[in-house]
Write a structure and sequence with these properties.
Layout (H helix, E strand, L loop, with lengths): L2 E8 L5 H10 L6 E7 L5 H6 L8 E6 L8 H14 L4 E5 L6 H6 L15 E11 L3 H6 L19 H10 L3 E5 L4
Parallel strand pairs: 1-4, 1-5, 2-3, 2-4, 5-6
Length: 182
């Protein structure tokens, strides 16, 4: 049976890493691997998660690019490697705060030059988006461009903060509202 995969997305600071730590500490005996994506040269989230990964779990860090574009092939390769080992129950992919879930989801239907599809060995189970409840309305109403915050993926990235937020929410089948007490 194909390996089950969940993608965890959400804005920078929404609490994705906190949710991921909670899932790892409450795994109910499941053997879970995590793939952590960060746009920076140094993958801060992966560094923070090292102490949460148990010996039977695996962690792969994808740094200095976004899994929805520049690191998409790397995601394909790493997920395929994990899926073919057969020793895992689930993989959780923590995407960068500026990635869009749809291109990540499309990775499961992509066929490489040999006709191989990730969907042959792994299946996308959940697209979860973590939302910062304290700043949600403010972010949804801003017309600020990602580039103004230094969050652009490429030179031609003219998306607004609100557009990215909508992209992350639109394709999620699970939405976790975090920081509701602030």
């Amino acid at each position: 049976t194909p390996l089950s995969v969940s993608v965890l997305s959400g804005f920078l600071g929404a609490g994705k890493t906190t949710v991921l730590k909670h899932l790892l500490h409450n795994n109910d005996g499941l053997r879970i691997a995590i793939i952590v994506n960060d746009m920076a040269d140094v993958n801060i989230d992966a560094t923070m998660l090292v102490s949460s990964v148990q010996t039977e779990e695996k962690m792969v860090a994808l740094s200095n690019g976004c899994i929805c574009c520049t690191l998409r092939e790397d995601l394909f390769v790493e997920l395929a490697k994990l899926a073919t080992k057969g020793d895992l129950d689930h993989v959780i992919v923590e995407s960068s705060g500026i990635s869009e879930p749809l291109p990540v989801a499309e990775t499961f239907t992509f066929r490489d030059g040999r006709g191989t599809s990730l969907g042959d060995v792994a299946r996308l189970d959940t697209l979860a988006t973590v939302v910062d409840g304290a700043s949600f309305l403010e972010e949804m109403h801003t017309m600020e461009i990602l580039r103004d915050r230094g969050w652009d993926v490429s030179d031609g990235d003219d998306r607004t903060v609100a557009q990215l937020y909508c992209d992350q929410l639109e394709f999620a089948n699970v939405i976790v509202v975090n920081k509701t007490d602030l």
